[in-house]
UniProtKB/TrEMBL annotation:
Keywords on record: Membrane, Transmembrane, Transmembrane helix
Residue ranges annotated for the YutG/PgpA domain, each copy included: 6-102
Protein name, UniProt field: YutG/PgpA domain-containing protein
GO BP: lipid metabolic process
Origin species: marine sediment metagenome
Bilayer-spanning residue ranges: 37-61
GO molecular function, one term: phosphatidylglycerophosphatase activity
CDD domains assigned: PgpA
């Protein structure tokens, strides 16, 4: 079940990224990518599988993750795994909401 996989990545990602952050001695080292994976999985949650939605989801997630609108930027200031994962989780949720709104408005 994909929900179980998402939950495992989410919980495991928080723990692992916190440990990796200690190992790499830096804040959100670029070698840690599980946060990006989890953010994208959240972006695509309950979104139909198609090239259109994969590309839209990827672009939306990356733009939101890079620009960190609203209070998303403050989330990454939290220490440890929660900070590393939190901003990507929030970006994924926002991207998913945008996709769901577009699907509803445009009848995709």
């Amino acid at each position: 079940n994909s929900s179980i996989i998402r939950a495992v990545f989410l919980i495991g990602g928080i723990w692992i990224s916190g440990k990796c952050n200690q190992y790499f001695e830096g804040d959100d080292n670029s070698s840690i990518v599980i946060d990006e994976l989890v953010g994208f999985l959240i972006t695509m949650f309950l979104v139909p599988f198609s090239l259109r939605f994969l590309l839209l989801g990827f672009v939306l997630f990356r733009v939101i993750d890079i620009t960190k609108p609203f209070k998303i930027g403050k989330i990454e200031k939290v220490s440890g795994g929660w900070g590393i994962m939190g901003d990507d989780i929030a970006a994924g949720v926002l991207a998913n909401l945008i996709i769901q709104a577009l699907r509803t408005m445009l009848a995709w």
